[in-house]
Amino acid sequence: MEAWLGLEIGNSRLHWAWFAGEEIQETWDTPHLSRLIEQQLAQCKTFADLPQEILSPDLNTSRLSPLASRLLPIYIASVVPSQTALWQAYPEAHVISLDKISLSGIYPTLGIDRALAVLGAGEAFGFPVLVIDAGTALTFTGADGDRCLVGGAILSGLSLQLQSLGQQTANLPSITTPEILFLPERWAMNTSEAIQSGVIYTLIASIRDFVTAWWEKFPDSQICFKGGDGKLLLEYLRSLHPEFTDRKIMYEPNLTFWGMRSYLQSFQ
Ligand SMILES: Nc1ncnc2c1ncn2[C@@H]1O[C@H](COP(=O)(O)OP(=O)(O)OP(=O)(O)O)[C@@H](O)[C@H]1O
Ligand SMILES: CC(C)(CO)[C@@H](O)C(=O)NCCC(=O)O
Ligand SMILES: [K+]
User: Fold this and answer.
1) Binding of ATP: at which residues (predicted)?
2) CA 145 to CA 83: how far, in whole Å?
3) Which residue of 11, 12, 14, 236 sits with most ligand 1 atoms within 8 Å of its CB, as the best mutation to test the pocket?
4) CB proximity list for 154: less than 8 A, separation 6 or greater
5) For residue range 9-19, what is the model confidence (pLDDT) as tens digits?
6) Active-site residue among 99, 113, 209, 229?
7) Predicted-complex ipTM score
8) Cα 39 vs. chain centroid, distance in angstroms?
9) How far is the C-alpha of 106 from the C-alpha of 111, rounded, in Å?
10) Quick check: is 58 catalytic?
């Protein structure tokens, strides 16, 4: 089984998956790379030459050691052109572009992360499917039973909403997502919880509205959450609306990587 790396470049950070053929072995996240690393990427001859910055401290690198003497292909799905540019120098970098994705009805500026995630979800659970990516931006992306893009929506994600409130006002603190330990009181009595209440209850209401509208169109469709805040938001959606607990709605962090796998299979 050939080894390869999947790299999803998001607006906040990099998401990595190490594949042996079609199986994901490990996944991890790292910060964006600095421009200083470009030279090192250009000179990579084996896996061992790759900068340490791309490996996670939790990664069991001894499992990777059989790969050390080879240069692994890296398949890249990026929505951050300046970060994509750094990889141009790496001899085995393959940037995935929208034109080779097997979905119809795509518009030219659709994010490759959205296209791959909806493809990966549809391949795994069947079409029609709706993906809710709770990342830096929160996106809804749906495809119908003919693998045709239905469309979707883009709004500010959880962190971005909290951060922009803090940055653009004199008296409001910037709350970070690790500070959100529980579902706040809706009618909050302090500033921090009032911000959390405003952002979280409106986000959940928006998500519920999109989910309901999707199921009106496609009643039996699977809905998948992904992204850094996906697990938390699905948990809150379910605790506020228990009727969603038994429905076809789940969290699956690797949808974009599944989309990459299916993209690669389409060339075999
Ligand atoms: N260690 C972490 N670092 C950064 N964000 C984190 C972390 N853990 C959880 N998060 C949450 O993940 C969210 C970012 O999600 P994610 O990492 O999926 O975004 P992204 O893929 O970089 O962005 P996008 O795909 O929207 O361009 C933030 O809103 C934050 O609350
Ligand atoms: C919306 C984001 C930022 C989500 O990562 C990304 O998919 C993107 O840059 N999309 C381009 C615009 C679009 O999808 O219509
Ligand atoms: K921008």
Assistant:
1) 8-15, 136
2) 34
3) 12
4) 137, 138, 139
5) 999 999 999 99
6) 113
7) 0.96
8) 28
9) 10
10) no
